[in-house]
Amino acid sequence: MEITKISDAKSWETTVMNSSHPVFVDFWAEWCGPCRMVSPVVEELANEFEGKVNFVKVNVDEANELASKYNVFSIPTLAIFNKGQIIAQQVGAASKDSYKKMIERALEKI
To answer: What one-character DSSP code corresponds to residue 5?
Structure first.
């Protein structure tokens, strides 16, 4: 599954806020070592949850207004949005299993 890259408020509105599926958002930056470590894990999860959860990446250097709006002060920050609301969030690099559990718990709430 392809991960959508978002860098502006208009694509954010369309892809995340108006999504009919929950959306897993990876707030990251090119220069962030832990972000680069998490990236392949996010790609694997995108394949595993295809059809259930949409995945997007937001480069905080290109979309700092979005990062500010959602109080992203440390990266990587990974959040799950449903109907425009954050329903789960994790700050910092973690294991694939940790992210998978976060997604599964979020899906149970919906």
So the answer is: E
Residues with catalytic annotation? Answer: 32, 35
Say how far apart CA 25 and CA 12 lie, in whole Å: 10
Contact 5, 57 (CB under 8 A): yes
Any idea of the CA torsion for 25, 51, 43, 71, to the nearest 10 degrees?
A: 10
**pTM to 2 decimals?**
0.96
Cα(73)–Cα(76) distance, rounded to whole angstroms? Answer: 9
- The whole-angstrom separation of Cα 5 and Cα 110 is 25
pLDDT tens digit sequence for 34-54: 999 999 999 999 999 999 999
One CATH from 3.40.30.10, 3.30.200.20, 3.20.170.30, 3.60.15.10 for 4-109: 3.40.30.10
Domain ranges of the chain: 4-109
